[in-house]
């Protein structure tokens, strides 16, 4: 009798283990809808108007391709960005796309690219009005829903402390693809 009782207990324990591994027993349940709405995603689009180049003396540069930059020069590029921000609670930031400052694989070109990439910044002012600054560099800013005109100034500085025998002499970089990135932040 002990063998039968021991076998029954062992069998019952095995069934319990098997059932436990297969999941839980479901009791009565039901589902009810708790919301009846549609969520629509917003958007953030940007287009740039034609811009202008100037040097540190605010003299216009008519052809950036022909400008020979030297240590101490500070070049600026100004353009208006037309932004369409559709959404609630949009915070944004604007940064330079450093990958858009490029050069050929030549030592002097790569040296100049490195110098200028490190010294390139962007500033944005909403509507271009005085005191209307909404962000500088990597600083985020509130971008309320709607259309905005952002005056963007990209500053490219050739460090004045660049050595006389600097590797960047006669180097060339391509700015034809110069870009900024406007992105939503959390």
UniProtKB/TrEMBL annotation:
What the entry lists under InterPro entries is as follows: Alt_signal_exp_actinobact, Signal_pept_SipW-depend-type
Output the superkingdom of the source species.
Answer: Bacteria
Q: What is this protein called?
A: Alternate signal-mediated exported protein, RER_14450 family
Query: What is the species of this protein?
Result: Cryobacterium levicorallinum
Task: Please spell out the taxonomic lineage of the organism that makes this protein.
Answer: Bacteria, Bacillati, Actinomycetota, Actinomycetes, Micrococcales
């Amino acid at each position: 009798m002990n063998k039968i009782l021991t076998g029954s207990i062992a069998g019952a324990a095995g069934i319990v283990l098997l059932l436990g591994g297969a999941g839980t027993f479901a009791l009565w349940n039901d589902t009810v809808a708790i919301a009846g709405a549609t969520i629509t995603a917003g958007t953030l689009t940007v287009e740039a108007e034609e811009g202008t180049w100037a040097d540190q003396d605010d003299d216009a540069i008519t052809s950036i391709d022909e400008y020979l930059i030297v240590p101490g020069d500070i070049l600026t590029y100004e353009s208006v960005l037309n932004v369409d921000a559709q959404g609630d609670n949009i915070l944004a930031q604007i940064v330079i796309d450093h990958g858009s400052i490029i050069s050929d694989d030549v030592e002097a070109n790569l040296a100049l690219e490195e110098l200028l990439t490190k010294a390139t910044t962007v500033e944005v002012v909403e509507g271009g009005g005085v005191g209307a600054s909404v962000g500088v560099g990597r600083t985020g800013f509130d971008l309320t829903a709607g259309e905005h005109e952002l005056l963007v100034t990209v500053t490219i500085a050739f460090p004045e402390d660049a050595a006389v025998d600097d590797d960047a002499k006669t180097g060339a970089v391509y700015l034809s693809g110069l870009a900024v990135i406007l992105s939503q932040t959390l």
